[in-house]
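Box 3.1. Reading complex inputs
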Amino acid sequence: MRLKILITIAMMAGPALAYEPLVEKREFTLKNFVTRGGRTVPEMRLGYETYGTLNDAKDNAILIPHYFSGNSHAAGKYKEADVSAGYWDAIIGSGKPVDTDKYFVVSVDTPVNLGANDPNVITTGPATTNPKTGKPWGMDFPIMTIGDFVDTQKGLMEQLGIGKWHAVMGASMGGLQSYEWAARYPDKLERVIPVISSGWADANLIAWLDVWASPIKLDPNWNGGDYYTGQAPNAGLAQAMKTLTLQANSAEWTDGTFGRDWASEGADPGQSWANDYKVVTKLNEAGAARVAQSDANHFLYLARANQLFVAGQPKDSLYKGLLNIDVPVMLIYTDEDLIFPGDAVRGTGTIIKSDGTPVEFVELEGTRGHMDGLLSIAQAGERIRAFLEAK
Amino acid sequence: MRLKILITIAMMAGPALAYEPLVEKREFTLKNFVTRGGRTVPEMRLGYETYGTLNDAKDNAILIPHYFSGNSHAAGKYKEADVSAGYWDAIIGSGKPVDTDKYFVVSVDTPVNLGANDPNVITTGPATTNPKTGKPWGMDFPIMTIGDFVDTQKGLMEQLGIGKWHAVMGASMGGLQSYEWAARYPDKLERVIPVISSGWADANLIAWLDVWASPIKLDPNWNGGDYYTGQAPNAGLAQAMKTLTLQANSAEWTDGTFGRDWASEGADPGQSWANDYKVVTKLNEAGAARVAQSDANHFLYLARANQLFVAGQPKDSLYKGLLNIDVPVMLIYTDEDLIFPGDAVRGTGTIIKSDGTPVEFVELEGTRGHMDGLLSIAQAGERIRAFLEAK
């Protein structure tokens, strides 16, 4: 059960309250997608989900990009029997703050999505066959940026005939994409809600992303990223997922949940290397549980995309992109966050509002650290509702 | 130079101010050392250094156990030409707070010391030859606890004819040993100064120690700890040292020092996997620089010893050992510490003083996080002096 708490994101909405009707994964393709780095992906196939109905004016659409280890399943269920609903189901649905009676919500799988082997994810990345070689791209796949993710969403926007998003909102890496939308395409959205995220990756975040990713390259099965005909670097990937899981929670929660309990009664970690603490075995299990549906190279690409992030991708300044943001901004954060600390979020907001752009701050209270941006988002529900409805 | 800042601990004392005279590494041996886990090490050989002179009454001795990646070189230089002095040289010496004109300072290498291949370290651990097999112990070496480290120091104390320490003081893992002395042998010391450390390893610390250590086991050269006739798991060990280095500093310092600089001018990490950020390459270099003199199995043993730590090692309570402390306590800490956070230190002090034991708190100000317990210890110098002199 504790493992479930660790790895299941959206337990808060009971089955009866989940967004209805049942959700379907859709798919779109962008031909000859050119990255901001100047490389071309001949066929960019990606998944998306929608909740609610696009109105005739096509001005009621809200975009939700997803977090690092997430995908476009933001609300609802695929089947009645699904144990849990999408990760932000608590705020998306009929009568909920992101009210699907009013809004048409679009949630999109990113390129290089971690869940390359998840049947509910459609993505294009190193694990995808390169049409030129007939083999998986591996590390020859173009390095992607948060800006590239946003540009794929712009491609979908055009296919759907939407000229402007009513709002863009997302958590963590989804928040980075939200900043990027507002900084790069300020006339393509009405407002933006970056959640548990800040305006650029600082040295500390760059270094931790590297710490997360490094075990993959240490795993001999990684083989320079060329493992698709052999054993995948699952041990390294599990370790990467484990570190991410630990850092995405708070020390308070880790201590409160596990204390100094041993993994097995009577099996003292002081007596044998075969014994361990419960917190370690549960984190190991949480990491290992994600491996089968995930791809190690995709993890490396995601880590790099996050390291590269500066809102708007200006070449010469951390601030220019943020100053380019002119739409109203709501920043949702928590001070217990070890990945995007409250200070970094407040600092970002201070820059944005320095030229008069309205910025609202909403602080989440909780014990889960970064994860509260997913688990406790309902706390900000009425603030989000009002922000979306404001003229 | 930045690499030097990362890996060199004691830059603060200029050469002219270092403890004098030149320091010598000494050695002692404990025959048939029995661990608290009930196993026997036939020959426990360890190094130590002393500063100052033991008086006739043998009541002026101060013990300094060392931190995780440190050794007994706490003050002075081995040769005039040494670039830096011992790590706490700023407070140890003639006229300094730990005044070697008054006190006889003893600093001891722990068993399973990380620097098994450092010519200035004398230690016994998995890299040592097991007299029974004629081969290195490897992972058959007994699991060690902080209590075992303290018991080796008690062995030295007896050899030196010292009945009671005037004080025990140490940083980080040296602070854990200090708590352990006071909790387990309350009649063997007059006062105690645990620095940047708390009274037990909580789940969060247990998990992070595991994250530090895990890359070693992922390195195929680790081979279950049996690598002494082949290639050592240096890549895994370097990664372990790198993560420790990052977490021992503060986000503020990491950001301020490296920002988003690239490792090489013109080598954009967005363009090639061969390129990286400076913070990453500098941390990699800092980790790699420690590898040649360190042993990977020793790292694993140190991590486990820290995970196992509860002051006094009571079986049934986190508090009993701390309540056993009856001598005056000075706790030195910083709120920027990511390894032993200020809250954990204050919580420890609250328990100790709950039964009337005097506890003084000294907060360090700095930008280096945990490292300030080494780098900024001089800030607490006059408080330490007064605490040592109090009747």
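In summary: Chain A has one domain: 2-389.
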